């Protein structure tokens, strides 16, 4: 479980994360929803120790250290690999560092995403780079997957593929925390929606509960929160 | 193994650039070795220099152009000290996000980059020492025999030119130069990390550190007039060890606690 307690971050006088407390549980897909500048990406980076913050962040009860990264991987909105590398070199790179690297999943996902190992990253479109990005994240074998805007700025086919992937066996037992603007597409995929506004969590719902008890869609709720 | 993997990737990323630099630098040196004899002969014919004297390869080493061919890789390596970090933050791939979230101690990234720079510098020195005799042979082949005073010992050639700065005479010298170089690169790396951690404030902090180090350097020059050379050597060694330790500790703290990507 990833647990955040009173996490705060300031840029000068402005608070971009304000006293955030919440948990991410195994086997759940949690989506951070918010307008631009709500603090979604900063929150993911704070969990990954990619930006300094105050408060307490633990993963399985322990503070984030280099060892934690064997269990927690970050999939940012841009593939974080040098563009002169080929897909095969990226796979070898990840295989070297991640003890639980899943070679079988990597090979299957190459086919699923229609990627060729020998292709160089610099020749790939944004959509295909995101496919590689997700492949590396999922095949790393980490149980916590943090993804920043995996559905933004990419073609409809790639979006469909990613949505399909998020409901597949590959992510079955993983805890996924991701940010997005594409509410309509993820409604049927996610378990939980966390709404952020001005660096704070303003509401936190299980989508099924929302549908059954309040008879509202995620979009309805979003309008309620932000308008 | 993690260190070697990162080191391999650093070299893999710069291989074409490095190859191009090697070709340009050593190509220019061979070109100078080829055209200098022609210029010498022309100057002799125009009575600008004596026809009764003989010349050797040291005339090439003494030229400003040769100095320039050595300065280019030196400057490029110094610039690369910054580039090796900034390209990972500012490049298209934001590779720094991957590096910082790898399941390894973050200082391994630092050591891999430091080793890359040191190895590139050593590579240039090694290649130069291997190619220098060939450059001398090229010079000899292009100059008419009556004007050539014969092959000089390569070590003598180095000692008689500015190249002496880049070479060492014994193991102690080598360790000394090696430590100074590593400390200098490490301090520059720390400067980059300070800037990355504190941005504009970091620039001010870096400027302050440069001023302090400059004052320290001036003090050492003044002290050299009051101490024996072996005393100075011990003093400088002590300062270097302290600076290197501080640089590594500060870098480690910044990488683990203050880094943004």
UniProtKB/TrEMBL annotation, chain A:
Protein name (Swiss-Prot/TrEMBL): ABC-2 type transport system ATP-binding protein
Transport recorded as keyword: yes
InterPro entries registered for this protein in UniProt: AAA+_ATPase, ABC_transporter-like_ATP-bd, ABC_Transporter_VariousFunc, P-loop_NTPase
Record GO terms (molecular function): ATP binding
Domain ABC transporter: 2-223
Coiled coil ranges: none
Record keywords: ATP-binding, Nucleotide-binding, Transport
Domain of life: Bacteria
Keyword ATP-binding: yes
TrEMBL record, chain B:
Record keywords: Membrane, Transmembrane, Transmembrane helix
Protein's UniProt keywords contain Transmembrane helix: yes
Highest taxon of the lineage: Bacteria
TM region positions: 16-35, 65-86, 107-127, 174-194, 200-220, 232-255
Identification of the protein by name: ABC transporter permease
């Amino acid at each position: 479980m990833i647990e955040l307690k009173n996490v705060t971050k300031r840029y000068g006088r402005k608070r971009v994360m304000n006293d955030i407390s919440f948990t991410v549980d195994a086997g759940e897909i949690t989506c951070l929803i918010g307008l631009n500048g709500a603090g979604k990406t900063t929150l993911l980076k704070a969990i990954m120790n990619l930006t300094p913050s105050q408060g307490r962040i633990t993963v399985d009860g322990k503070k984030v250290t280099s060892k934690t990264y064997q269990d927690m991987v970050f999939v940012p909105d841009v593939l974080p690999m040098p563009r002169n590398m080929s897909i095969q070199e990226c796979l070898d790179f990840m295989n070297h560092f991640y003890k639980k690297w899943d070679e079988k999943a990597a090979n299957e996902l190459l086919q699923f995403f229609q990627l060729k190992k020998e292709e160089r990253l610099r020749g790939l479109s944004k959509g295909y780079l995101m496919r590689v990005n997700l492949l590396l994240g999922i095949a790393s074998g980490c149980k916590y997957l943090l993804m920043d805007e995996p559905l933004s700025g990419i073609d409809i086919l790639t979006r469909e593929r990613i949505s399909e992937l998020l409901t597949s066996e590959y992510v079955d037992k993983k805890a996924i925390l991701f940010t997005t603007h594409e509410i309509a597409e993820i409604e049927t995929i996610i378990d939980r929606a966390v709404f952020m506004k001005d660096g704070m969590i303003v509401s936190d719902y299980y989508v099924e509960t929302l549908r059954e008890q309040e008879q509202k869609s995620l979009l309805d709720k979003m309008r309620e929160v932000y308008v | 193994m993690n260190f070697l993997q990162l080191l391999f990737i650093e070299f893999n990323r710069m291989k074409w650039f490095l190859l191009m630099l090697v070709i340009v630098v050593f190509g220019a040196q061979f070109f100078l070795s080829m055209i200098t004899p022609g210029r010498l002969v022309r100057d002799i014919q125009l009575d600008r220099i004596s026809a009764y004297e003989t010349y050797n390869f040291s005339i090439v080493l003494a030229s400003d152009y040769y100095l320039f061919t050595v300065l280019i890789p030196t400057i490029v390596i110094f610039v690369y000290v910054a580039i090796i970090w900034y390209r990972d933050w500012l490049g298209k791939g934001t590779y720094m996000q991957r590096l910082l979230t790898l399941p390894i101690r973050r200082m391994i990234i630092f050591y891999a980059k430091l080793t890359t720079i040191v190895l590139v510098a050593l590579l240039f020195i090694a290649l130069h020492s291997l190619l220098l005799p060939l450059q001398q042979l090229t010079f000899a082949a292009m100059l008419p025999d009556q004007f050539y005073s014969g092959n000089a010992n390569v070590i003598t050639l180095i000692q008689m030119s500015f190249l002496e700065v880049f070479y060492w005479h014994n193991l102690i010298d080598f360790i000394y130069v090696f430590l100074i170089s590593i400390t200098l690169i490490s301090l520059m790396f720390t400067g980059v990390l300070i800037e990355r951690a504190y941005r504009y404030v970091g620039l001010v902090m870096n400027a302050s550190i440069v001023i302090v180090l400059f004052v320290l350097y001036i003090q050492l020059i003044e002290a050299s007039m009051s101490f024996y050379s072996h005393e100075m050597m011990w003093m400088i060694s002590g300062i270097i060890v302290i600076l290197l330790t501080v640089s590594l500790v500060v870098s480690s703290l910044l990488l683990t606690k203050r880094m943004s990507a």
